[in-house]
Amino acid sequence: MSIKSQLSTLIQLAKIDGEFAGEERELIMMLGKANGISEKEVLELVENPEPLPPLSTMTDDDRFEYLYNIVQLMKIDSQVYLSEIKYCEELAEKLGFKKSVISKLSSKVFSDPAITSNREALKREVRKFQH
C-alpha cells in the first residue's frame, strides 16, 4: 500500500475544517518523515492528493491501518466535527466496513499517538464490522 495514498487521505481529513495546520499537520508530517517522505513531498500531496487505492489491492491489515490512522487524526486536536465523522464513515464504507465501525474504533483509539492501543484486539473488533 502506498504511504502517499494514505497520507493523502489523512490530509483530506485534516483539511475538512478549511486549513492544514496545528496538531493534525504535525502528525501527518511525523508519519511522512517516519516513512521516508520529505516535508516538501507531503506539501505536494496537500495540493495534489493521491486517490485511495483499489479495495481489491488492499489487505485487511492495510484497511485497518487506514481506519486506525484516520480516527487517530480526527481525535488528535480534541475537536471532533460532524464533517470529520461523516468523512471517516464514508471512507470506512469505501474500505468495506459498516459506518458504525468509526464510533467503535473512536471509543478505543486515543488522541495521543504516544499512547499505544492493543492493535491486535482492535483489529479483531474492527473485522466484525466488515461487509
What this model shows, in words?
With 131 residues, the protein is mainly α. It has one domain (3-127). The chain contains seven helices and no strands. The chain has helices at 3-14, 22-34, 39-47, 60-76, 82-94, 101-108, 119-127. The protein is globular and about 40 Å long.
Briefly summarize what is shown:
By secondary structure, the protein is mostly helical. Helices cover 62% and strands 0% of the residues. The chain has seven helices and no strands.
Keywords:
131 residues, mainly alpha, 7 helices
Topology:
Layout lengths: L2 H12 L7 H13 L4 H9 L12 H17 L5 H13 L6 H8 L10 H9 L4
What percentage of amino acids are in beta strands? Answer: under 5%
Q: How many beta-strand segments? A: 0
Count of distinct structural domains: 1
Helices, by number, come to: 7
Q: Low-confidence parts, pLDDT < 50 over ≥5 residues?
A: none
- Rg calculated over all Cα atoms: 14 Å
State mean pLDDT (0 to 100 scale): 86
The residue fraction in helices comes out at 55-70%
Oligomer: single chain
Shape: globular
Distance between the termini: 21 Å
Main β-sheet description: none
What structural class do the secondary elements suggest?
mainly alpha
Element-level helix/strand string: HHHHHHH
Protein name: Tellurite resistance protein TerB
Organism: Marinoscillum furvescens DSM 4134
